[in-house]
Specification:
The protein is 0% helix and 34% strand. With 231 residues, it is an all-beta fold. The strands form five sheets. Strands 9, 10, 12, 14, 15 and 17 form a six-stranded mixed β-sheet that branches. Strands 8-11-18-13-16 form a five-stranded mixed β-sheet, with no helix packed on it. A three-stranded antiparallel β-sheet has the order 2-1-3, with no helix packed on it. It is elongated and about 105 Å long. It starts with a strand and ends in a 19-residue tail after the last strand.
């Protein structure tokens, strides 16, 4: 929980007054301030900030209401402590310049992967970033499906099967050699992406999924002679 004093916006000057890790029962919380909070004259704003788990399910709605304030000597019930609106969890990864941390994707789950401009902005020029996507369990692998591909002429995406860059990419995509769909061929299920730009453009939006990999095995071989017999 953050205190922003008489400022409605949560700026850099916001003060952390409480941290809660146990959700308690029936989705209720008793939040204890780490120290007494001095109130300013007029309105006093408190902000609740959620820190969602890495494997939080997409499209889950987050909402909160303030029901009671405890001043020690007295309690005040809050009748209008549930503001309009809610937050919806979106599983997204926005590419950053340089080495990005490995992103582990839960089995059967997916997320949206965007260039450094995010879902609505343009990518920047002279970008050079690398990221590895990994499945949570053996037997699963990373699959890419391009939902948007608007990269500029000299911009390139290099795909490497496995958890690291190699001297030569396994696949390369550009403005004309468009990414449509790729599934890793690495036994560990990982897939690494390097993306470089020379020009700014609308960029890309890629659905990244962890899918069950099918193992192909030869059960038997049947042969048949096709040579004609001599009379």
């Amino acid at each position: 929980m953050l205190s922003t004093g008489d400022n409605e916006a949560a700026t850099d000057s916001a003060k952390v007054v409480a941290t809660v890790t146990d959700l308690g029962t029936n989705n209720t919380l008793d939040i204890q301030f780490t120290e007494p909070l001095a109130l300013v004259e007029g309105n006093n704003w408190l902000r609740v900030r959620y820190d969602t788990k890495e494997d939080a399910e997409a499209d889950t709605k987050l909402d909160a209401a303030l029901t009671t304030l405890d001043f020690g000597a007295a309690k005040q019930n809050i009748t209008d402590g549930d503001p309009t609106g809610e937050r919806v969890i979106k599983n997204i990864v926005v590419f950053h310049n340089g080495e990005n941390a490995t992103k582990v994707i839960a089995n059967g789950s997916s997320l949206m992967f965007y260039d450094d401009g995010g879902a609505n902005g343009k990518e920047t020029k002279d970008f050079d970033g690398t990221i590895t996507f990994a499945p949570a369990s053996p037997g699963y692998g990373i699959k890419l499906v391009a939902k948007q591909w608007d990269v500029a002429g000299r911009n390139r995406m290099y795909i490497y099967y496995g958890g690291e860059k190699k001297d030569k990419a396994d696949l390369e995509f550009s403005r004309y050699d468009k990414l449509e769909q790729v599934t890793t061929k690495s036994t560990d299920g990982k897939l690494t992406i390097r993306y470089t730009t020379t020009y700014a453009s609308d960029g890309f939006a890629i659905e990244v999924s962890s899918v069950k990999l099918s193992e192909l095995a030869v059960a038997s071989v049947k042969t048949e002679s096709v040579a004609t017999e001599k009379a």
